[in-house]
Amino acid sequence: MKKKSLIIILSVVLVALIALFGSLYFNNKNDEENDPKTSQSQNDDSQSEKEEQGTNITVKVVLDDKSEKIFEIKTTATTLADALLEEKLISKEEYDAGFYTTINGVRADYTLDGMWWCFYTNGEMATTGANEITLSEGDNFDIVQTPA
Amino acid sequence: MTLSKHPHKLYELILLCLFGVIAYISQVVMSALPNIEIVTLLFIIITRRFGIKALSSVYVFAFCEILTYGFHIWSINYLYVWTVLVLIILPLRKIDNIFIYTLIGGIFGLLFGTLCSIPYFIIGGISFGVSYILTGISFDFLHLFGNTITIFFLYKPLTMVMNKIKL
User: Fold this and answer.
1) Rounded-to-integer distance, Cα A100 and Cα A98, Å
2) Shortest CB distance from B100 goes to which of A3, A99, A129?
């Protein structure tokens, strides 16, 4: 009986967690798809790809001392991580690991520097990794060195 | 207490270290499969057999992982995530029921990303922690799926092997 009630409790917890995580996942996905900016630029993207075979994006690297460097990038890459690698803003090792401590030669390693790189897509903090951020024509990315 | 006067203690200690290394090897071998692992199952079985001493295996495993991959933010996770699993199994270890452990393994797999997000909440605040969880949800579902399958199919044979060990 004790085992039975434990199994029931655990099953209920598991189902509730699946429902919660599932709804979080799909909400997050829908938010990205319904973002008018994203869908508009996705249309632009497909048109321009036909015309010019490339996507124009702007990457702004902002350091802790507020100094910034702007990169106007034209790329055929599909994700931000691919574009950053192409521009040599990140290393191949960190590209493979999917976790970036050094951007454009500047390190922001939490354990060593007490700082991290925060990514913003068109002004909004990114909710996915750079390897999952797809590029659209005219996208603006801010990569900000942020103190912990 | 000296270990030479208590050979069974020494034997147990060696076994526990060995299990930690086995867990590490299994992780490395299966690292190509995203979030499919048998480490959860191994620690469940080790905890059932050895109780709180299973933490020795956990920390041998964590030590090997850090030696291999270096110390990063995510290394902090290894220092407490598996301990949480051991502490959950500890009060239930006398119960021998495949469904209970399959369910616990599944829940643990689904919550793995959330448990691992704690350092990110501390480092970058709530938005960083939440975005870390959201980014990893698809991997958490894979982890749930992987744990459920591996525990359901391997719990009985591995428990049988573990019970053959005489202390």
Assistant:
1) 7
2) A3
